[in-house]
């Protein structure tokens, strides 16, 4: 009886230990919304079918340091916040600038990267543009759901502000002369022009335009979720401290 009791006790101890170990290593898995067209922040690698980019590498590193796993979910840019607020995804990791308007609906993590808008022109347009005022009376474009659409409509004075689902569609209309100029995320457009000149042929970024919509790129979360926010910010602080974030930014030529 004594030996049987010892064996039973040992089995119970091992079982409890295994269960305890499982509870320690188990981490929450967060569905992360990202776009397929935000090169180099987030984009679909058509050869592998995998979503890649600076913000993909960043959220994965943040998750590793913050204690959670990630499941990347593709979405069009304009659907990211609605998907988040309707609980279809748990986080957004994309080239989405923090703005007061968006803060009314969602909450933002500590900053990861900062940038402003770039003015895209046809190569044969030699006009010196320094501000939106210089495009008064013209037809201009920007990506739907972006802060640039908001800024253009708020600024006013344009003949028309057209919205596009993707930067590629916007560039196509610009190349065809359907719009006079386009506004887009400066680092995204600059990266595309440097790495894919064929797709951006006939276009250029203005070297004289001064951006007015400069903001921080953060991880976006639902409101009233302090626990997840703490996890994310913990991860961001860690990858900033150990140099991981700087290496990711440098890898994607955003430094």
Automatic annotation (TrEMBL):
Gene3D superfamilies on file: Periplasmic binding protein-like II
Organism domain of life: Bacteria
Matching Pfam families: SBP_bac_3 (PF00497)
Keyword hit for Plastid: no
SMART domains: PBPb
Database matches in InterPro entries: Solute-binding_3/MltF_N
Entry keywords, A to Z: Signal
Stretches assigned to the Solute-binding protein family 3/N-terminal domain: 29-255
N-terminal signal peptide: 1-26
PANTHER family recorded: ARGININE-BINDING EXTRACELLULAR PROTEIN ARTP, MEMBRANE-BOUND LYTIC MUREIN TRANSGLYCOSYLASE F
Assigned protein family: Belongs to the bacterial solute-binding protein 3 family.
Name the record gives this protein: ABC transporter substrate-binding protein
Biological source species: Pseudomonas weihenstephanensis
Taxonomic path: Bacteria, Pseudomonadati, Pseudomonadota, Gammaproteobacteria, Pseudomonadales
């Amino acid at each position: 009886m004594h030996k049987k009791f010892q064996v039973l006790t040992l089995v119970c101890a091992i079982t409890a230990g295994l269960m305890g170990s499982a509870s320690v290593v188990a981490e929450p898995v967060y569905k992360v919304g990202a776009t397929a067209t935000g090169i180099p922040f987030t984009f679909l690698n058509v050869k592998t079918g995998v979503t890649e980019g600076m913000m993909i590498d960043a959220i994965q590193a943040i998750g590793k340091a913050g204690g959670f796993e990630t499941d990347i979910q593709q979405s069009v840019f304009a659907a990211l916040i609605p998907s988040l607020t309707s609980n279809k995804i748990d986080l957004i990791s994309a080239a989405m600038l923090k703005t007061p308007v968006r803060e009314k609906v969602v909450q933002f993590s500590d900053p990861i990267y900062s940038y402003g808008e770039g003015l895209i022109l046809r190569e044969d347009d030699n006009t010196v543009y320094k501000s939106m005022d210089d495009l008064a009376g013209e037809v201009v474009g920007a990506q739907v759901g972006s802060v640039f659409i908001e800024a253009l409509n708020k600024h006013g004075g344009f003949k028309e502000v057209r919205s596009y689902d993707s930067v590629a569609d916007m560039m196509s209309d610009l190349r065809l002369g359907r719009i006079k100029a386009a506004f887009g995320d400066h680092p995204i457009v600059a990266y595309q022009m440097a790495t894919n000149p064929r797709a951006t042929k006939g276009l250029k970024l203005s070297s004289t335009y001064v951006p007015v919509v400069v903001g921080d790129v953060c991880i976006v979360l639902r409101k009233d979720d302090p626990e997840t926010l703490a996890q994310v910010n913990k991860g961001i602080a860690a990858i900033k401290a150990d140099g991981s974030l700087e290496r990711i930014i440098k890898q994607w030529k955003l430094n």
